[in-house]
Structure prediction request, 225 residues.
Amino acid sequence: MPPPERGQGPDPHPGEEAAPPAPPVAIRGFLLYRDFLLDRAKQEAMVADLRAVAGEAPFLRPMTAWGKPMSVQMTSAGRLGWVTDRRGYRYEPRHPGTGEAWPAIPDSILAVWRAVSGTGRLPDSCLVNFYGEAARMGLHQDKDEGDYRFPVVSLSLGDEALFRMGGTKREERTESVWLRSGDVVVMGGAARLAYHGIDRIRFGSSTLLPQGGRINVTLRCVTSS
Ligand code: MD3
Ligand code: FE
Prediction:
């Protein structure tokens, strides 16, 4: 019998002992679980689940507050999805293009939340971000949710991304780390309101998405009950 693999994440194969995920690395108050999803087939299954989400709720390029579309494309699953228009950023129960309720959060994604969030509560919202070659996300705080007691859990799939993390004030020193496919980040406590962003991706660094690019999934509790 080979030794159990580390970092294979939640949902072990039947009869197999769940290998405990490798302990996380703490960076500026957030927890980085490197290679939490080591299994390529699981990553592919998640991508398929997220493609199904995007089939029902097509990706959008949200407008920034200053009237330029974001370079990142977004859609959502769950009870509430993050949307933006001239009225600003907020969570809504329907896709602004189709008028339909957001699709359910895939079980493959919820399993990650159950494994690392440290709460019995389930997330209200699953934001799916797609980064093409030139996409980036400026330094920002996530402050559109009603409850900051619960962590935000993020999962990276596809190309590597340079993630920058600061403090709760924009002026504070930042630290950067390359996130790779299968990495999971948990932002709780003080880190929940820290400034963060994606400076760039290494387009083509992963073969998970045949056309290249990166998917980031964030799970959040939006309402306070
Ligand atoms: C730190 N997404 O969707 S995920 C976002 O890779 C967002 O697409 C980035 O920032 C991405 O809002 C970063 C990591 C992340 C997510 C939420 C956070 C870091 C966070 C909330 C608070 C602090
Ligand atoms: Fe964010």
About this structure: The chain has one domain: 25-220.
